[in-house]
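---------- Forwarded message ----------

FYI, see the Methyltransferase type 11 record below. Original note from H. follows.
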Amino acid sequence: MTPTPTATLVARDWAEIQERMLVPLYEAVYDRLEVGPGDRLLGLDCGAGLALLLAAARGAAATGVEGDPARRALARERLLEVLAEPPAASGAARPYDALLAFSPTPAALAAALPAVRRGGAVVLAGWGPAERCTVPSVLGGGPAPGDLDALVEGAGLRPDGSGRVFCPFGYADVDSAVRGLLSTGLYDGASDASLVEKELAEALHPFERPDGAVWLPNIFRYVIARVA
């Protein structure tokens, strides 16, 4: 499937503006798991692949799964191995040591788990406490922290710790902030895109700094679980 021009632009906004906002989260998780040479990681909904690049920089072999053709194409431009759907479990291939699945649906998580070895790590992440997150209030809500624990339980995984990471979203100006936040996909169901952009820009004004930059402090929570 060839990405539409609009989808390509949104994917580039994600890659060039938004994706880097989650670097503190990726690095904290990799430190916690002690990711390094010899590890095999599978990144579910990997976007343009920045998390994979960070893992590769530590010596790990990282593979991504991304259903959006435009984002998948950008990740492949970075010379990353990115699949359209989770790989099937195979006795001929070494299972993955860890699965990075930030805010997946239960179905997507279930589809990816067979590729992870027994005892392998599964990392889920989402918004932290509401009072510590600016972005959900601007975007009109976000997933509750308890959703991560429910995913772990529903998937039959064994809890193995959790943590919180400060991930501020900083933008050069309101226009960049609007483009970056829209690229998250949380507004994809809106019927009037121009109205959404206008309302989002207005909601961001209280977070503008004197120089025009936009600063949105956030705390993300992650949980680590193990495949039984």
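H. also flagged this: The longest helix spans residues 5-18.
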